[in-house]
Amino acid sequence: MEKYLSQLNEAQLAPTIQVNGPMIIIAGAGSGKTRVLTYRIAYLMSKGVDSFNILALTFTNKAAKEMKERIAQIVGDGEAKNLWMGTFHSVFAKILRFEGHHLGFPSNFTIYDTQDSQKLMGSIIKEMGLDKDIYKTKQVYSRISSYKNSLITVKAYFKNPELMEADAMARRPRMGEIYKEYVDRCFKAGAMDFDDLLLRTNELLTRFPNVLAQYQDKFRYILVDEYQDTNHSQYLIVRALADRFQNICVVGDDAQSIYAFRGANINNILNFQKDYDNVKMYRLEQNYRSTKNIVGAANSVIEHNKTKLDKVVWTANDVGEKVIVHRALTDGDEGRYVASTIWETKMNQQLNNNDFAVLYRTNAQSRAIEDALRKRDIPYRIYGGLSFYQRKEIKDVTAYLRLILNSADEEALKRVINYPGRGIGQTTIDRLIVAANQTGKTIYDVIKDIDSVPININNGTKNKLRDFVTLIESYKVMNQTANAFDLAEHVTKTSGLIRELNKDGTPEGVTRMDNVQELLNGIKDFVEGQMELADAGDSLAEFLEDVALATDMDADKGDPDHVALMTIHLAKGLEFGHVFIVGMEEDLFPSAMSMNTRSELEEERRLFYVALTRAEKQAYLTYTLSRYRWGKLIDAEPSRFIEEIDEQFVDITTPLKERFNPMLDPSIFDDVEPNRVRFAKPKTAKIKKKEPKKQPEKFQISTPKKLKPVSKTEKAPSSFDTKLVVGDTVNHQRFGRGEVMKIEGSGGDIKAEIKFQNGATKKLLLRFAKLEIL
Ligand code: ATP
Ligand code: MG
C-alpha cells in the first residue's frame, strides 16, 4: 500500500488516509478526485475495513468497473469483488430485489427503461381519450420523472394546489390522473422505472426503519463520486444510509454540475457541511491531466460564472499547444476538418484512434462527423446513442424473457403478444387492457381466464390467445431447469422470432439477425461468468437487470481502438489526449433553449468547462458559418464561449479561402444529403448572380482578427458599432443590402436587426458581422 500512497501528492494523501468521519473534497477538473476515491477504498481495506461494508457510488457502471479493477491491482482480486460499487440505479436495484417485497413488489420485478415507460404513458393517454398533441408523451414523461426525483408522490401531488395549477396552466389539467394511473399500472405490472429505483428506495428506507438500520450497519463507509450531480432523491438516500456512522466521503466540483435539467441540485454539495457534524473539507488544486494552455483556457471560461466556489486550479504540466479555434463553412466541412486533423495528427505523432474524442452538445451533430470519419476509414464509436439493448429486435427477445420471469409485465406482453404475428389484433389487445383495468387482474391473467372474464372476443381469437399463453407457460417450465442461454436460444427459435427475421432478406434484416446472435453470445458469456463464480443465482433475472441498466457507455463492443463520439454530458469524468468540441455556435452551444436565465446560461458554461477539461494535450473548437438544423440552412454565429477564453490560450487559424468557398470547390456539397442540396443551391446561386466579382471574399465574414476575443481592456464596442443607427442602409457580404431595424444589447454584445432585400430579417452580432454602411 505504501507504494501506492507515494503516487499521491500531499493534498491528495490527507483525505485518502482519513479513515473515519464525514469529508468533502471539492476540487477542479483533473485534480485527482476519482483517484483519491479509488486509493481511499484500497486504503480502508488495508486498514482492516471489511470490503462488504463499503459502498461506492459512481456516475457510470464503467467507472465503477475501472475503479474496481484498479483496487484489485492494489489489494488483490478476491476482496475487491465484495465491494458494493456502481451507479445509484444499479446498486439500489439490487437492494430492491431483496427488499422490494416490503413495498409489494416481487423480487423479479421488471425494470422499465425509458422506452417502456413512454409507451405505457402513451397508451394511458390514449385510453383516457386525451389529445396527444397537448399531452405529448415525452413531456408527460419528463414531468412525471421530475415529480419522482423531487419525491412528489401521487398523494403529495394531489395535496399540492400549486403543482396542479401549473399543469393546468400548461393545458394539461389531467396530469395528476395520468401520474396516478401510470404508477398503479407499473405496480400491477410488477415494474419499476428508472426513477422508481430511487423513489422506492427512499420509500423503503423511510417506511421500514429495520431495513434502514440493516443497511446503515452494512454500509459503514460510503463514497460518492461526482456528488455535484446528485438529485434530491439520491441525496436523501445517501443521507439516510450515512446517518448512523457518518463515514461519508463525497467528491465533486461545483464547476462541473451539468445535470440541473434532470433535477441535480448543486446545493447538495454546497450544504454538505451543514448536513453532518465536524465535516473535514479538502481541496485539491493541482491538475494532472491537461497542459497549461488547456487549464488556463478552462479557468478563464469558468471565471465568467457568477455562481461558483472560489477554487484554484493550476498544473505543473507542459505549456503545450494553444486551444485551436477553427471556422468551417458547413457541418460537412466541419466533419472533414475533424477527420483530416485526426488523420494527420495520428500520422505525425504516431497516435492511436482512441487518443481522440469528438464532443458535441446534441446527438444530432454526430452524423456529419461520422460521415467524414467513415470516408477516411477511421474507426469510431458513438456512445450514448440508442443502446444495443434498446434496438427493436433485442427488445423483442428480451421482452419474451421478461414475460417468462414476470408475466405481469404489461409492456413486455404488449410487445410480443402479436409479434411474430399470431392474428391477435389491436382491438383485441385494447379490449384485454380494458378488461384488466376493470377486473384488477393483469392482462396475462385475463388471457389465462379468458372464459370466465366478460369480454367481447370471438372464439377464433380466444384460441389464439390460449395458444400464446401455452407457449409462454412452456417457457416458464423450461426456465425452472434450463440456464438462461439455453432458454433464450430456445425462445428465439420456437417463438418464430428467428423465422421472422430470416424472412427479411434486406441488409438491415441480416444485421438484426446478427444482433440477436450477439445477444445470445452475451447471455452465454454471462452464464459462463456466473458458473465461474459458482454463483447459483437466477442468471436470467440478473442478466435482464444488467440489460435494463446498461447504458451504451458500459457496453464494450467492436474495435477497441476507436475515436470516441459522444455528447459532453456523457464525457464527464473521462479524459482523452486530443478533444474536438464541435458546433461552437450561438443557439447550439450555448443551446437556444438555455439562454433565458442566467442560471441556464451558467450551466451551459459549466458544460463547456467540462468539455475543455477532458483534453490532456490538445483541444480544438470548431464552428460553422451555416448549419442544417431542422431541415433548414441556418446562419450560425460563433459561440460566445469562444470569446470568453482568454486570448493568450487560443490560436485562431486562418482557413484557406478555397476550402471555404463552395463556388470554387463545388465538391464541398458532395456528401450532403440530396434534400439538403436543394436548400443550398438557390442560396449560393443567388449570391453568385448578384456580385460575381467579389466571390472569393464572400465567406470571410469574420476574419480571424475580427473574431479574436476582445481583450478585457478593449471591451468597449468598436467605433463602428457606435456609428450604426436605426434606418441605416448596410451591405453584408453574404446577405447583401439591408436596412437596420433595431439595435440592442451593449458592450461586445450589440446586435442589429437587419431587414435584407432578399426578404430575410436577421439579428447579427456586430462584433462578428462585417457590415458596410452605405
Ligand atoms: P474530473 O473532475 O474530470 O472527474 P478528477 O478530479 O476525478 O477529474 P482524476 O480523473 O482522478 O481527476 O485524475 C486526472 C488524471 O490525473 C488521471 O489520469 C489521474 O491518473 C492523474 N493523476 C491524478 N493524481 C495524480 C498524481 N498525484 N500523480 C500523477 N497523476 C495523477
Ligand atoms: Mg473524476
From TrEMBL:
Reactions that this protein is recorded to catalyse: Couples ATP hydrolysis with the unwinding of duplex DNA by translocating in the 3'-5' direction; ATP + H2O = ADP + phosphate + H(+)
EC number(s) from the headed UniProt entry: 5.6.2.4
UvrD-like helicase C-terminal domain ranges (all copies): 292-573
UniProt keyword 4Fe-4S present: no
Origin superkingdom: Bacteria
Keywords assigned: ATP-binding, DNA-binding, Helicase, Hydrolase, Isomerase, Nucleotide-binding
One annotated Gene Ontology cellular component of this protein: cytosol
Pfam families per UniProt: PcrA_UvrD_tudor, UvrD-helicase, UvrD_C
GO biological process: recombinational repair
SUPFAM superfamilies named in the record: P-loop containing nucleoside triphosphate hydrolases
Group of enzyme by EC: isomerase
GO MF term set: 3'-5' DNA helicase activity; ATP binding; ATP hydrolysis activity; DNA binding
InterPro entries found in the cross-reference section: DExx_box_DNA_helicase_dom_sf (IPR013986), DNA_helicase_UvrD-like_C (IPR014017), DNA_helicase_UvrD/REP (IPR000212), P-loop_NTPase (IPR027417), UvrD-like_ATP-bd (IPR014016)
Region of interest (Disordered), ranges: 684-715
Binding site for ATP: 27-34
Domain named UvrD-like helicase ATP-binding: residues: 6-291
Protein family per UniProt: Belongs to the helicase family. UvrD subfamily.
Protein name, as recorded: DNA 3'-5' helicase
Record organism: Winogradskyella epiphytica
